[in-house]
Amino acid sequence: MGPGTLNDSGTPEFLLLGLWAPPSLRPLLWVSLLLAYLATVLGNGALVFLIALDRRLHRPMYRLLTHLALLDTAYVSTTLPQALAHTAMHHARLSLARCGAQLYVGISLGSCEAILLAAMALDRCLAVCKPLHYATLVTAPRCAALAGASWTLGFVLSVPNAVAALRLPFCPGRPAVDHFFCELPAVLRTACADTTANYRLVYGLGVPILLVPFALILASYTWILTAVCKLPSAGSRRKALSTCSSHLAVVGLFYGTVSAMYLRPRASTALPARHHKLVAVFYLVVTPVLNPLIYSLRNRDVHLAAQYVLARLRGVCTGLH
Predict the structure, then answer these.
(1) What string of DSSP letters covers 150-219?
(2) Contact 61, 299 (CB under 8 A)
(3) What is the pTM assigned to this prediction?
(4) Is 3 exposed, middle or buried (0-12, 13-18, 19+ CB in 10 A)?
(5) What would the pLDDT profile of 40-66 be if each residue is shown by its tens digit?
(6) Contact 114, 71 (CB under 8 A)
């Protein structure tokens, strides 16, 4: 890192400018972020809790859904608690190590989610296209292997982008990151160097991290639609498609926001920072809140599991009295 302002320990620091709001609206912004964080943690936590307790949900689709819920919870936990603390300040300082760790964990978790969504699409494809062989094709060990591969590949493939970004020279003084967390494009915009190679690396790794899983998702749903069209009745076609609707909604939310964050043309980085922050807020705040709702509101299995768990809790409370 180039010459810059050091903290008391001699370590370079970044200056996070955070989410802008007039002083009169800062309390409202803080409460909104807090409610979003609590909704994400409690919603995803409740989903994981139901899947763990009810044996009827011990199926591959719900095992993979558990990992998606854990990913969403981990993602917001790397950014929103810090954003809550920084919203109460005018500006927030972040050491190079903390900024680098947040940048790496953030892009790693996003990469994991892209690969996991492809694994979930494959699961739905086999459930619809090969229903008689589904139980033997998608076993618990294979499901665990798919989830483990998602986590491993996500963290491994994110190393080059994080290392390349943090090796850049930054401008003298305390580099100002015009964002509420150390997002990769926001950090690249603070560098006092040509970042062409970094953007090429972002786009290059975007192929195996984002576009290959997306191609697998498209292929899976092409096979699903082909199989559904061959079903004899409208009711059976509706039932088959209903098992995929939640996943499709989550895929749309994920790729819509991530492509706007990481696969946009480099010229779009000249847009005002508030546009980049708005996309990040939707991805980091809105999407993790919606995911557990999407998977539970119209899901009969989740409703039955909730009723079962509530009945057990009432029985325990009655026993205590």
Answers:
(1) HHHHHHHHTHHHHHHHHTS-B-SS--EE-SSS--HHHHHTTBSS--HHHHHHHHHHHIIIIIHHHHHHHH
(2) no
(3) 0.89
(4) exposed
(5) 999 999 999 999 988 888 999 999 999
(6) no
